[in-house]
Every structure is written in structure tokens, then in C-alpha cells.
């Protein structure tokens, strides 16, 4: 074996052991369910549940029609440019924001137009099936001093390879927000699908309506002020819709662009730690050495265990031991694509993304498809 092969083998072994250690530490930190359970109050407060949207799908309309078994008073308000078909229990606030981040613009307008005082404010995307457990899981941390509460998405049901890859990416791998929560250093990773907003978060949010990742930027702003972000013990259930591969690629390429803009120091860790299985496996086959192969196999075993643990915590056990392989392929592909895509498209308009996540109009015509949602 020549010097290059030895160096290659040592480097490959070191990379596999680093990835193994990352997965092992995540498993150790997940030994208890992230978030915990905040003590229930004697009386649950009144809740204002905001549902920002632009063009709801039939599945999302069904989510809005579902009854929310929350023990306190709850007003659910859809914030959108036009009135969709809604049950009598759901109100509508017309909103057509000019801000570049439409969802943040909807929320900023709703906070200025609606009576908020005395109520706990939640923001939940339309693709989430809201139930009482989620509402209580978002409300309780705010009552105990958290500035922001968030819930990890749990995709229910998945059809086709693309749908299974998306489900596993969010529920069985290191990109699960349960895993991100226990491994975060500094400002917490936040998923904007389901948020509980304290008074301080409500005050900061309107200033972030031109950022592509308003949820991450909000977490950073609160962290800088010494405020805490709490994870709901209940996941945000997202009934799966048919997913095309192109839509999945666009969606998570956008997530990688958000990561690069908001946390550039973490961007290189995606292929190194979050999705290394495919390059590690390929390099082990090319090298053929026993020691690197053993290190890679040990890493793969740890990833299977991590997938099973996260599947149990999300309540999504289907494909937990195997589908993470497709999820890592999806995430790695999107990371590579994000290196070349410099703009995103929002409601038919292309924007360049500046460091820090601020969007500015772009005339190059490049961008992601409309199906790439925040």
C-alpha cells in the first residue's frame, strides 16, 4: 500500500469515526424525550391560533375543518389574501402583504390588526393537523417563561420514494428537529411550522418579514437577548400529500440556502455529519481496506439505531431502520444544488439571498419552483 492509499484510509477512518461519534452523542442525548413536559396550569389560557396561508390545498382545508380539543378558549384565524372554504368555527382575516417573506408578513399584519392582549398567540402552518396536544405543548412553555416554543414536524403517511425520503428526513435522521434540538449549540434550531410567540417574539417578528428564514432569525435574535426557546413535547402532525421528486429537491434545496445564509458555519457539516452515508460507503468500497470498512459499518449501525429511536419519538416507525438512506441521498443532493442556486422564487418573484437571510429582488430569472415552501 503506497503513501496515498494509507493517507486516504486514515482520513476515511477518521471521517467515519467522527460521523459515528456524532450519531452516538445524538443517541445519548435522545435517551430522554426532548422538550419534557411543562406542568399543566390550573386553567388553560385563551389562545389566538393564526394560520397564515396563500393557496390552501384540499388536504389543508380538511386540517382547518378539524375540531381542536383544547380545554381553554381558542380562536382560529386564517390569514390569507382571499377567503377559502372555512367552517363557522374558523375566522378569516384578509391579508395580502407586500413583504418579501409572505408568511411573516401575514403574521405581522395579524398581530397589528387583531386583539392580542390577554391571549397566547400561536402560528401554525395550514399543512399541520392541529390537535389539543399540540396547542397545549406550544402554550405550556410560554406560561413557564419561554420566549418561543416550537414543535418538530412528524410526517404521517408517505407514498412513493420521494414521499418516504421526505418523511424520513424529518423523522428519522439528524435533520429531525428533535435531533437538532438536542444537538444545537447557541441559538436553537426552530421549525416555523408550529410556533408559540411570546410578547417579545411578537415584537421582533415584523422586523424579520424580509428574511427567508424568519424562524431561524427569530431564534437567533431571542438567543442574543438571553431568551429561551422551548420544544413542545407534542409533534406537529403533517398528513403527507403526494410528493414529486422535483418538489422535494426544490423544498430542501431552499432549506440548505436558508442554512447557508443564516448559519454559514454549519453549512459544511451537512455532508460531513448530517448526510455522510453515501460518500463514506463509496469511499470504503473504493479503498477496500478492512479498518475503514469496519469504521463505516459501525457508523451505519449507529445510524440505524438513531433512525429507530427518532421514529419512536416521532410516532413514525414506518421505514425508520431503512428509509434514512434515501433521506441522506435527498439531503446531500440538495446541499450540492444549493451551491449553484443563488436565488429563490416567492410568489412568482425571484430574490437573491444575502448573508443573514435578507432577500432582495433579483432580475436574473433564476429561482426555485413555487412548490418550495418555507
Helix content: 40-55%
- Strand fraction equals 5-15%
Largest sheet entry = 7 strands, mixed
Mean pLDDT: 90
What's the Cα radius of gyration?
21 Å
Shape: globular
Series of H and E elements: HEHEEHEHEEHHEHHEEHHHHHEEE
The end-to-end span amounts to: 50 Å
- How many individual helices? 13
Low-confidence stretches: 365-374
Strand order of the largest sheet: 3-2-1-4-7-5-8
In brief:
The chain has helices at residues 3-29, 58-65, 102-113, 132-143, 160-171, 177-183, 199-204, 214-224, 245-262, 269-274, 277-287, 290-314, 324-338, and strands at residues 47-52, 74-80, 90-94, 120-124, 148-150, 153-156, 194-197, 229-231, 236-239, 343-346, 349-353, 359-361.
Features:
single chain; about 375 residues; alpha/beta; seven-stranded mixed beta sheet; three-stranded antiparallel beta sheet; about 45% helix; globular; disordered C terminus
Description:
This protein has 374 residues and is α/β, with parallel strands linked by helices. Helices cover 45% and strands 14% of the residues. The protein is built from 13 helices and 12 strands. It has a 7-stranded mixed sheet with strand order 3-2-1-4-7-5-8, with helices on both faces. The protein has a 3-stranded antiparallel sheet with strand order 10-11-12. A two-stranded parallel ribbon has the order 6-9. A hairpin with a 5-residue loop joins strand 11 (349-353) and strand 12 (359-361). Helix 1 packs parallel to helix 12 (290-314), helix 5 crosses helix 13 (324-338) and helix 9 crosses helix 13 (324-338). The longest helix is centred in the N-terminal third of the chain and has 27 residues, at 3-29. It is globular, with a radius of gyration of 21 Å.
Amino acid at each position: 500500500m503506497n503513501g496515498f492509499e494509507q493517507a486516504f484510509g486514515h482520513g476515511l477512518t477518521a471521517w467515519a469515526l467522527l460521523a459515528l461519534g456524532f450519531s452516538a452523542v445524538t443517541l445519548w442525548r435522545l435517551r430522554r424525550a426532548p422538550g419534557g413536559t411543562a406542568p399543566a396550569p390550573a386553567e388553560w389560557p385563551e389562545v389566538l391560533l393564526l394560520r397564515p396561508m396563500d393557496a390552501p390545498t384540499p388536504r389543508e382545508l380538511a386540517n382547518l375543518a378539524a375540531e381542536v380539543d383544547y380545554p381553554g378558549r381558542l380562536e382560529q384565524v386564517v390569514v390569507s389574501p382571499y377567503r377559502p372554504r372555512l367552517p363557522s368555527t374558523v375566522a378569516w382575516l384578509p391579508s395580502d402583504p407586500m413583504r418579501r417573506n409572505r408568511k411573516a408578513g401575514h403574521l405581522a399584519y395579524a398581530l397589528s390588526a387583531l386583539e392580542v392582549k390577554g391571549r397566547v398567540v400561536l402560528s401554525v402552518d395550514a399543512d399541520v393537523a392541529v390537535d389539543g396536544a399540540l396547542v397545549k405543548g406550544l402554550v405550556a412553555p410560554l406560561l413557564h417563561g419561554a420566549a418561543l416554543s416550537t414543535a418538530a414536524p412528524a410526517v404521517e403517511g408517505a407514498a412513493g420514494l420521494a414521499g418516504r425520503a421526505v418523511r424520513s428526513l424529518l423523522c428519522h435522521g439528524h435533520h429531525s428537529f428533535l435531533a437538532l434540538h438536542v444537538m444545537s449549540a447557541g441559538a436553537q434550531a426552530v421549525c416555523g411550522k408550529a410556533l408559540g410567540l411570546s410578547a417579545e417574539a411578537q415584537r421582533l417578528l415584523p422586523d424579520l418579514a424580509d428574511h427567508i428564514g424568519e424562524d431561524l432569525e427569530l431564534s437567533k435574535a431571542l438567543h442574543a437577548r438571553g431568551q429561551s426557546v422551548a420544544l413542545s413535547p407534542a409533534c406537529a402532525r403533517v398528513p403527507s400529500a403526494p410528493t414529486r421528486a422535483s418538489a422535494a429537491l426544490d423544498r430542501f434545496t431552499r432549506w440548505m440556502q436558508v442554512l447557508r445564509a443564516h448559519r454559514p458555519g454549519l453549512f459544511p457539516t451537512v455532508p460531513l455529519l448530517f448526510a455522510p452515508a453515501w460518500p463514506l460507503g463509496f469511499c470504503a468500497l473504493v479503498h477496500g481496506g478492512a479498518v475503514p470498512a469496519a469504521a463505516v459499518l459501525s457508523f451505519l449501525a449507529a445510524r440505524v439505531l438513531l433512525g429507530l429511536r427518532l421514529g419512536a419519538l416521532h410516532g413514525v416507525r414506518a421505514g425508520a431502520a431503512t428509509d434514512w438512506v434515501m433521506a441522506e441521498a435527498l439531503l446531500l443532493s440538495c446541499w450540492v444544488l444549493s451551491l449553484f442556486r443563488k436565488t429563490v422564487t416567492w410568489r412568482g418573484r425571484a430574490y437573491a439571498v444575502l448573508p443573514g437571510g435578507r432577500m432582495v429582488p433579483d432580475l436574473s430569472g433564476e429561482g426555485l419552483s413555487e412548490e418550495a415552501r418555507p
